[in-house]
Amino acid sequence: RSWASGSNRDFGRRSPTPSEALLQLENAKIAAMALHEALRSKHFQKFPTHVHVWEHFRSYHAILLWSHMAVFGLLVLTIFEMPLWCRDPRGRLEDPWSWRTAQEACAGIDGNAPASELLTSGVPLLPVGVGLAIELVLLCVVLARILVTSSLHRHFRQVGVKYRSSALMVLDYLMILLGVGDVAFVMLCPYAKVRIAPFVRFGLAINIPWIASIIEAFVTLTRAMISTGAVLVGTVLVWAWLGACIFDDMSLKDQLGVPINQGMENFGDSAYTMFATMTTNVLPDAIGPTFTAGTVYLFFWVPFILCACCIFSQVILATVYQEYSALIAKRLKLNFENRLKGIRVAFHYLKSTVRHEKGGLLQDVVQYEGFQRLAEALRAIDRSVLDEKHIRICFEALDDDKNQTLSLGEFHDMSVLLQTRFTLTRRDSVVRLHLEGTQAGRHLVWWMS
Prior knowledge:
- The protein is mainly alpha-helical and about 450 residues long.
- It contains 17 helices and 4 strands.
- It has helices spanning about 1-10, 20, 25-40, 50-80, 100-105, 130-155, 165-190, 195-205, 210-245, 265-280, 285-295, 300-350, 370-380, 390-400, 410-415, 430-435, 440-449, and strands spanning about 355-360, 360-365, 365, 405.
- A hairpin with a 2-residue loop joins strand 1 and strand 2.
- It starts with a helix and ends with a helix.
């Protein structure tokens, strides 16, 4: 009850004038935008109602996938571009459209080895002109997405909501300006040996959701490991200092003639030895010389192995697991809450003006005609949404009392089903349908029963 009263305040609007009504979206399209964002685990309490918002919203989601593919193409292009160390610093450049192998392009430039001695990966390299043309096309696709996003963001700002954070919007414009400027610079100076394109491509990739989630997880886990990792590093350095103090002046050798202070001659060598010992890869080699000189040195090694290898290293792994689990749980909880809130917003815009009885109570409901308009609007955004015949089947399956209306709970289930792809299969085969009503058909039914 409190949510309903709060939502009425949030969504309350004055009645539009006749001229304003012509420029406002119908509720089904607003509900479609709210539901589409909810199914992507995003939530906005208010949506702009200007008629142009719908086209901008459709254009944004139509070009979004192409933009992500363009950014991925820019990252892949890095592999096939001519390396900067193959550019002639004296300004001499072959035909920028000619196809050459890496040996032909890079041999003899700025002290490089001759072609017969130059070892490369064997990956075919794009000519400079072809690489720049592909990069410019991909940047134009990203620029189109940025412009559409800016228009959509401006409409949402008019109702006091940010469609995207200001920081990401600034990052978008900064990266695309630097990218286009870098391409222009290389066109003017094709022999330049400095480019900022790799940084630009990484900056654009941050806007891809799954890459952003990976970076967020990396930052969170790194921050969690700093405290425990600092204790581990401190333990290694303390034991390295003790080892250097104990073994640096010893000149004894073991039975094989290996100095017992091998790897402990000074603090730097001792620190390297202790770090290598912590990984247990060189554990026998590190302990062997000192152990053969005297078992008393086990009092030096055993505490270090217990602290560094058995305790602190495992604590780091436990910390990483706990923080990552907490991060995933937080994401899932936030996504579920945003989805539930977004579905409620869509239900509010789509619900009937008159309450109906559902389950013995008067409730706000969505009628089938309204839900059908919602599905048509959603199909204009995403072609994978259920078509009309599947919607009717699912609607009747979820409508428990068969009164052609959906309560909030049923609307939630139906909204999730919109993402599901169904295939209808006839119960009877073509042969049985063809023989229906005939003597052969009756014999077939008898035999099958």
